[in-house]
């Protein structure tokens, strides 16, 4: 992990999972931003116009913006004193942050990435930023887990803005997009027992090939990748329980045995079950 306080691009450097800093953005106006998997920007001084996915937002002090690596984003007409806090997160850490967050939040952020400051927002964000900076400065045994929890708290706080946001009631969502978000919801419900794309395609009454086209378009990933990612998060969650045996985890997640579970986990993470448990303990 690294902290940067100079003019910076919004893409992580080297092998960092997380990077934060304060300053102006390096990219010139009207130039597409090169983004990390997840980017959070909070305006500190000045103002700027951002174009995100063909919509324009006027950012001023304490406003904030949530971007993804596939966002089509650029800065326009920034003031000379524009500066922002930036938080850059890679795919692995973002997946751990997303675990357990409400699905409605992701749907909301996909269409509403920009938040205008109000008194409650300003108070919360200032406290949150102070605590995050303090956590980043410390050398802690569980620093990554604490930072994951810190970002989960932020997004859970944002989730109250999604209250009553029902995809079925939004006429501007296409059937294809609605199916894609329904698939995401089904993964959360069934991934402990089902890892087969055909199972989910059947529930959605579409073919696996069609489902693959949808997820690549809207999530930039194959259906199997999304399923496996959630299964890995389930395994990590259970590995946090020291008294739970590998065979118990395998049985709970419908693996034939602990050996197959271990091979599956190592294939997707590059580390064995025992080594991972030692690392987190």
UniProtKB/TrEMBL annotation:
Residues 181-279 form the HTH araC/xylS-type domain. Transmembrane segments: none annotated. GO terms for molecular function: DNA-binding transcription factor activity; sequence-specific DNA binding. Gene3D superfamilies: Homeodomain-like. Pfam families: HTH_18. Keywords: DNA-binding, Transcription, Transcription regulation. The keyword Transcription regulation applies. This is AraC-like DNA-binding protein.
